Amino acid sequence: MKKIPILRLGRILLVSIQEDLTDNEAMQFQSDLVNKVAEIEALGVAVDITALDVVDSYMARVINDTASMVRLLGAEVVICGIQPYVAMTLIEMGRDLIGADCAFNLDQGLEMLRERIAHRGDIRFTGDGDE
Amino acid sequence: MKKIPILRLGRILLVSIQEDLTDNEAMQFQSDLVNKVAEIEALGVAVDITALDVVDSYMARVINDTASMVRLLGAEVVICGIQPYVAMTLIEMGRDLIGADCAFNLDQGLEMLRERIAHRGDIRFTGDGDE
Predict the structure, then answer these.
(1) Contact A39, A4 (CB under 8 A)
(2) How far apart are CA B85 and CA B53, in angstroms?
(3) How many domains does chain A have?
(4) Cα–Cα dist A48/A34, whole Å
(5) Do A73 and B109 count as a contact with CB atoms less than 8 A apart?
(6) Residue B129 domain-assigned?
(7) Which of A36, A81, A111, B127 is a plausible cystine mate for A50, CB 3.0–4.6 Å?
(8) CATH of the domain at B63
(9) Which tens digits make up the pLDDT trace of A54-81?
């Protein structure tokens, strides 16, 4: 069973989904992520799916549910790097398969997260020594 | 019948739900809270549910309804301290069981409320002597 690495950048977490997940892998991933968010009191999570050339309705639901869980804990979420073809098929499959906010790539996703977090009035977001 | 204490911090109210509520307790709580919000013209309410290890669909509805009632009166609401496992089960049970905004803990919830209230253009929100 593959495990999706969760990287930490101050109080922001980065995850990159590289391929389709099975039911078990998805549950493990969600559980790992929410626990990590709770553990470090993450303020934001960037989910990078640049590597996914195809996103079926199951994977869309996994991504969406993950984003919703993280939001319930109180962190901001941005989905990064949805491919053009993926965007087309997601919309054709039905609206709101991805309800979270999206960014073009990881860079812009992080920028967006920082902006959001700053607006929430918590300035301890960049981490890596400037806290 | 247990009564949920409603604490006042300037024009922000704090409530902490420690355990599951019965129908009657939930109605009493909602009634107490909206009356208190109306009485002091509260600008924000932080609902802390850190102590809840399990939130079933009934409790999720109570929390959600309470948040909606408070919003109808014109105050901001933030739900604080949803546990990782609770977040996962809420999402698995169905979308949007908790529609309100969430914060990691009471600290961040208050920060978020203050930010929101400040954006609404009302600066008399902190209370406690700095008015």
Answers:
(1) no
(2) 8
(3) 1
(4) 16
(5) no
(6) no
(7) A81
(8) 3.30.750.24
(9) 999 899 999 999 999 999 999 999 999 9
Is B90 at the interface with chain A, CB within 8 A?
yes
Q: Is the pLDDT of residue B22 over 80?
A: yes
Task: Please indicate whether, in this complex, the C-beta atoms of A69 and B88 are within 8 angstroms of each other.
Answer: yes
Is residue A124, in this structure, part of any structural domain at all? Answer: no
Question: How near does any CA of chain B get to the CA of A26, in Å?
Answer: 12
Contact B48, A74 (CB under 8 A): no
> Under DSSP, is residue B61 helix (H, G, I), strand (E, B) or coil?
helix
Do the Cβ atoms of B104 and A65 come within 8 Å? no
Q: Using CA atoms, how far apart are residues B68 and B114, in angstroms rounded to an integer?
A: 19
Evaluate the CA torsion angle A68, A111, A105, A129 in order and state its sign: negative
pLDDT tens readout for residues A81-127: 999 999 999 888 876 778 889 999 999 999 999 998 887 764 444 44
CA-atom Rg of chain A in angstroms: 14
Task: Judge: A74–B115 Cβ closer than 8 Å, yes or no.
Answer: no
How close are the terminal C-alpha atoms of chain A, in Å? Answer: 37
B50 touching A (Cβ < 8 Å): no
Q: pLDDT for A36-53, tens place per residue? A: 999 999 999 999 999 999
- B126 found inside a domain: no
Domain presence at residue A95 = yes
Contact in structure between A1 and A28 (CB atoms under 8 Å): yes
Mean pLDDT of all residues in B117-131: 59
Residue type, B24: N
The neighbour count for residue B95, using CB atoms within 10 Å, is: 13
| Cβ-Cβ contacts under 8 Å, B90 against chain A | 69, 72
- Its domain, for residue A26, covers 6-117
Report the gap between the CA of A103 and the closest CA in chain B (Å). Answer: 21
